[in-house]
Protein 1
Amino acid sequence: MSDGVFERCPALSELGIEHGFGEIDSDRAQVASLSLARQVHGTALVEAPVLEEVEADALYTAEPGAAVGVRTADCVPLLIADGGLRGVAAVHAGWRGSAARMAETAVAGLCSALHVMPDALVVAIGPHIGPCCYEVDEPVRQAVRDDRVLAPGRPGHYQLDLFELNRRQLVRSGVSGDRIQRVGECTHCHPDRYASYRRDGSGRRMLHWIRMPPGPVAPGA
Ligand SMILES: [Zn+2]
């Protein structure tokens, strides 16, 4: 078992942005100045800091040194940074949030709040349940409304590709395809590394976070 390991995205690290996609037993005690909200499978993007009872599936901040995070176990975590370092966001998108276009809402809201263009954003998509393991039924297919991300499976069932669903939404929002990076693997396939709600049925979650770099040190400080 890997205790509190965080996986990094090379493109975010190159920007000097601290971040991590947590594996099993990643813990908020490992991340200072962290804001988390109550995730409700919606599409609200809220500026941090927030009280933890605030309902939001995406948090952003423009504050140097401040961190925002989400918790998942099979759902898709997205960590987003402006390449000009004006702000960062953490996003949670399961099938409900993905079907409701959480990623598009997050990109539009973040760009509006930070006064940046979508093609300035770098997006890392972290470990989530892959199409190898994510069987869904007809109601989910109808909500997703995009057969290009659904492969036929057992009668009346489909294998849903959440990565591709979110990637398509990001590109449609104006994010450059080469600035979308994938980190980690299928949560359901790797019980030694990841929590999986579908596999374990428990309340176990993994923490994913991103932080604005601290502000420049003032001359003479
Ligand atoms: Zn799998």
Note: Helices lie at 10-14, 95-99, 102-114, 138-144, 162-172, 197-200.
Protein 2
Amino acid sequence: MRQDFMYGQAFGRWLISSFALSFFLLNVAHAQADKALYEPTIAQAGKDVIWVPTPNDLVVKMLEAAKVTPNDLVYDLGAGDGKIPIQAARQFGARAVGIEFNPDMANLARQNAQRAGVADKVTIVTGDIFKEDFSNATVVTLYLLTTLNLKLKPTLLNMKPGTRVVSNSFMMGTWEPDLVINPETGGRGALTPATGGRGYYWIVPAKVQGEWSVTGLPGITTANLSLQQKFQKTEGTLTFGDNRSQRVVGKLNGAQFTLSYKDANDKEQTFIGEVAGKKIYASLQDSPTTVITATKLH
Ligand SMILES: C[S@@+](CC[C@H](N)C(=O)[O-])C[C@H]1O[C@@H](n2cnc3c(N)ncnc32)[C@H](O)[C@@H]1O
């Protein structure tokens, strides 16, 4: 009996010390895991640009400006600690990819995505933004430098019309932003002159420069439209079959093309079309059932 009691006591002590040891080892493991997290320093060198994280409020405003939804695939070029892709997944439900050159940083971004519970939606690629393919992105986010934005500009302009691009601080040269983001003014970003913004937003425009033959304009058999394009802005000449011609100004919002002209009765009309390669399918704002087709000649 006494032996049983002593055996019970010894077993109890063994159980307690085992628990204590396991608890201690678990803590050590956690401490080591935390210690293993790479700790970057603000402004540390990067391949083409230093690391500085985008402030939290601006991350949200940039993603709001781009109207990110769960249907989007967001790419952050130069992803740092992964905060933009992580927020795109966590708050907006998007799938997101970060491209980061520094392998330690990329690893940290992966660990951060894991800790934020969005590892299933966020992929971090260790690579160079000038070599990796991001052509399937629907939204591209940037916090680089103007020189790097300019280097990326031709690639961005060749992306699918309607792709949204958002940049912290740095602009895109002569490609004016569609929206300037100023979190201080509230809302999803305010349209203000393109100065003093904290972020900038562009929508990749469809390419419409050239000569078009237009059928379906009310009262006009065929018309010829000659367009010059500067990014999202267009201007040109619309010539009716009887050789009457007029200067016209248009605007692109991704693949959506809006053009104002004066009809055969000198009434101001707005043509709203969808650009699909060498065709534009359109109608008039005042008469949405009108079927207008423009075909690219060259
Ligand atoms: C200013 S930080 C921005 C980080 C993050 N996008 C953000 O807004 O919080 C720029 C990041 O780009 C990375 N970087 C620099 N050159 C790169 C390159 N050629 N390819 C991929 N990443 C690059 C740097 O290591 C750094 O983490």
Note: The helical segments are 2-36, 56-65, 83-92, 103-115, 146-157.
